[in-house]
Design brief:
About 90% of the residues lie in helices and about 0% in strands.
């Protein structure tokens, strides 16, 4: 797995988690 792909996937997961937390707080 290319480092760039792993970094992109990690960032995507983090964004999803942040979005889920923000949605749950409302």
């Amino acid at each position: 797995v290319p480092p760039g792909l792993a970094f992109f996937a990690g960032g995507l997961v983090i964004l999803l988690v942040v979005a889920a937390v923000q949605f749950a707080r409302r």
